[in-house]
Amino acid sequence: MADMVTHLGTPVSAPTVREWLESLGMGCRKIEKSLAGGVSPDRDAQFCRIKELLEEHRLANNPVFSIDTKAKEHLGQLYREGRVRTESPFFAFDHDFPGWATGVVIPHGIYDYFNNRGHLNIGLDHDTGAFACDSFRWYWRNIGKWAWPGATSILWHCDCGGSNSASQYLFKEDLQRLASDLQLTIRVAHYPSYCSKYNPIERRFFPHVGRACRGLLFDTLETVVRLMKKTSTRTGLTATVNVLSGLYETGRKVAQDFKENIPLAFDILLPKWNYVATPQLR
Question: Residue 47 CB: number of other CB atoms within 10 A?
Answer without folding.
Answer: 16
